[in-house]
Write a structure and sequence with these properties.
Blueprint lengths: L5 E6 L5 E7 L4 E7 L2 H5 L6 H22 L9 E7 L3 H18 L3 E5 H7 L18 E6 L4 E8 L2 E7 L5 H11 L6 H9 L24 H11 L4 H34 L3 E5 L6 H14 L2 E3 L3 H4 L3 H12 L28 H7 L1
Parallel strand pairs: 1-4, 4-5, 6-9, 9-10
Antiparallel strand pairs: 1-2, 2-3, 6-7, 7-8
Helix pairs in contact: 2-3, 4-11, 5-6, 5-7, 5-8, 6-8, 7-8, 8-9
């Protein structure tokens, strides 16, 4: 029987404040989150100072509410988990200080968790309306895509993550948000581009698919971002509004093409049959639909967690945390936040300029 049967987890790496209670089996007893989209919308993106301040308002009331909904008290928990890296340093500090305080007050241990590891293990979560396939297990290929990260991993087991490819410049989610802002959809751009694209043509506009013909598994979306800006330059407001669905659908298709091309290459290169989409961009409806068709055509097992476990959430942090706690790992009160802490590094293409290789190393 596991030593840690249920823990409370906290996630405050960016602008979402989230608290969850997770069991050793990966069952989510409760998860509750507070979002800040309206607080940042006027600025067209996330303002770190506003994000961290709002975490201080929301966090402890969410802890109380999460425990209440699960009919539990702090005495019923075996420990705590918290995102300690990577992320906005002020946001990370709020969650980390709160977790350390709970640990000190209860005398129960806590563990700092890498936010990216949480995303990679999110497929194992389960609740009353979702459970992963019974035969889903290691190893698998995971495509982790969000506003800050776009990476391909081979997941061999807990803590054994091989980075196969990563973006050399911008993340896919960043490209979505930039394009959404450019065409006047505001923040968050990714969700609004997805919604607007539903009635548009995926072929009316030709956007670049960077590196799609190259053998490596890295990504690049900076060229696509620039192309999106050029596509709307010179358009009147009336012309832009008329073309908006087609612009969004064509731009979105370029991102989906690149993501699925790299995922397909990785699966074939490693000879695996299990694939995972995770991270905020995996909530994109076009990506999900095309990924499901791709998996069916190739005989792959594709696992995509529900949207509530793809976007930033404390449940995924709880699962990664309780797995590590039951392996004998704990963190000390000296643990600090790490704003830049990837799980690993992938080799960069040989034909990159030397200055870019140094910048990305």
């Amino acid at each position: 029987m596991p030593t840690f049967r249920k823990i409370l987890a906290i996630e405050t790496s960016c602008d979402d404040t989230s608290v969850a209670i997770v069991t050793a089996e990966g069952r989510v007893l409760n998860v509750i989150s507070a979002h800040q989209n309206t607080a940042h919308e006027a600025f067209g993106g996330i303002v770190p100072e506003i994000a961290s301040r709002n975490h201080t308002y929301h966090l402890m009331p969410l802890v109380d509410e999460c425990l209440k909904r699960a009919s539990l008290g702090l005495q019923d928990l075996d420990g705590f988990a918290v995102t300690s890296k990577p992320g906005l340093i002020g946001s990370l500090l709020v969650g980390l200080v709160a977790t350390k305080s709970l640990s000190l007050a209860t005398g129960k241990p806590f563990i700092g968790v890498n936010h990216l590891e949480g995303h990679l293990l999110a497929p194992f979560l389960k609740d009353d309306s979702y459970t992963p396939p019974a035969d889903f297990e290691y190893p698998y290929i995971a495509l982790a895509i969000s506003g800050g990260h776009t990476s391909l991993y081979r997941i061999n087991g807990l803590g054994d993550y091989e980075v196969l490819g990563r973006t050399i410049d911008d993340a896919a989610g960043e490209a979505f948000d930039k394009f959404g802002k450019t065409v006047g959809l505001g923040f968050p751009g990714g969700v609004r581009v997805d919604q607007t694209a539903k009635t548009g043509s995926t072929t009316r506009y030709s956007f670049p698919r960077s590196m799609i013909k190259e053998d490596h598994l890295n990504f690049s979306f900076s060229g696509l971002k620039a192309s999106g800006v050029r596509a709307v330059q010179g358009l009147s407001e009336e012309e832009l509004q008329a073309a908006l669905p087609d612009l969004c659908a064509s731009f979105q298709e370029a991102i989906v093409d690149v993501l699925l091309d790299r995922l397909d290459r990785a699966m074939k290169l490693h000879g695996l049959k299990r694939a995972v989409l995770t991270g905020g961009v995996s909530a994109n409806s076009r990506l999900r639909a095309r990924a499901e068709s791709w998996a069916s055509e190739n005989g792959y097992q594709l696992v995509v967690p529900p949207i509530r476990y793809c976007t930033d959430n404390a449940a995924m942090i709880g699962y990664a945390g309780i797995e590590r706690l039951n392996r004998g790992e704990t963190s000390s009160q000296t643990l600090g936040p790490e704003p830049r802490a990837p799980l690993g590094a992938a080799p960069l293409p040989e034909n990159l300029p030397e200055w870019l290789k140094k910048a990305k190393s």
